[in-house]
Amino acid sequence: MTAVLDHRLRKVRKCGKMFPFMQHLKIYLDGVFVNEPDAKISVFDHGLLYGDGVFEGIRFYNGRVFLLEEHLDRLFDSAKAILLTIPLERDALRAAVLETCRQNQLRDGYIRLVVTRGKGDLGLNPNSCLKPTVFIIAATIVLYPEKFYTEGLRVNTVPTQRVSPAALSPAIKSLNYLNNIMAKIEGNLYGAQESILLNQQGFVAECTADNIFVIKQEQILTPHVTDGALGGITRRLMFDLAKKMGREIREANLTRYDLFVADEIFLTGTGAEVVPISEVDGRKIGPGRVGRITQEFIAAFRERTQNTGVSIY
Ligand code: PXG
């Protein structure tokens, strides 16, 4: 083992990037790139103390950042909604995202772009925070195993309701994910692979990090964003892909019953991509294999990821 490691280390020294797993990630932190062990923020940062901040999860495929402008739009909107001024112009932020990918010599992976309220005092008043903290991580992503895409996920609806838009808009992609995490914990307790949240009226909202689509007799339905769904960027892409496929997606109030009797269900998200559902609360969905329309969306999505995006190199 030692011999193998020594051999690898020699190669790393000689070839630099041959074994990137043995090197530290380079993290963008407030304008500079630092090695991951040195990428530290204050324990007084309100992002940590209160979840006061916003973020985006972005994918890059084949050397191109996928739907980057849409993610920047949403980040700036989330920040505006919480009266947080991002301390970089949009062009500079875009450049920082691309440079973070380059610094890590990656062509496929996942970007976490985070803006926190910054360091303040122990009170929750954001006025004590003088400068927002910006950091960007670009890394490889651990995907769902391929069998999830061929066999589908077992999911459960959970007791935790999606936070009401009157309390905190689910459209804001904030650093406070406890609502989603509670739902995830409940799903874990049921042995589910993902959890579906309902809103206070009992309508389906979304999953912990994904939007949901239901197909019944060729009709494709998805909850309204006003039912508590994040305006997912992958969700929006589905409308575009559907149009190209000669299909239509309609927004609707959906109940658990609509899930139980669906012909097909799939989830969409930056992390999960397009992933089929095979079971909801013990009810098998459709014929027990990935449905035909879901397969069409998966194929169209994959094609789009490989052929579009902002070039990194
Ligand atoms: N709903 C919620 C609550 C989300 O957080 C989505 C829907 C899907 O949106 P997009 O724009 O990605 O299609 C999200 C997205 C993670 C992670 O690391 C979470 C998201 C995205 C990327 C990574 O858990 N959330």
Distance between the termini: 36 Å
Helical content band: 25-40%
Q: Beta-strand level of the residues, as a percent range?
A: 25-35%
Instruction: Identify the CATH architecture of the largest domain.
Output: Alpha-Beta Barrel
Task: Give me the CATH fold name of the largest domain.
Answer: D-amino Acid Aminotransferase, Chain A, domain 2
User: pLDDT under 50 segments (min length 5)?
Assistant: 1-20
Q: What characterizes the major β-sheet?
A: 9 strands, mixed
Q: Give the averaged pLDDT, no decimals.
A: 92
- Which H/E pattern describes the elements? HEEHEEHHEEHEHEEEEHEHEEEHE
- Write down the CATH class of the largest domain: Alpha Beta
Structural class: alpha+beta
Write down the Rg: 21 Å
Net shape: globular
Taken together, the total number of domains comes to 2
CATH superfamily of the largest domain: D-amino Acid Aminotransferase, subunit A, domain 2
Q: Helical element count?
A: 9
Bound molecules: 3-[O-phosphonopyridoxyl]--amino-benzoic acid
How many individual β-strands?
16
Quick description:
The chain has helices at residues 2-15, 46-50, 68-81, 90-103, 146-151, 178-190, 233-244, 256-260, 292-307; strands at residues 26-29, 32-35, 53-61, 64-65, 109-116, 133-139, 153-157, 194-198, 204-207, 211-216, 219-222, 249-251, 264-269, 273-280, 283-284, 310-311. The chain is an alpha+beta fold and 313 residues long. Strand 10 and strand 11 (219-222) form a beta hairpin.
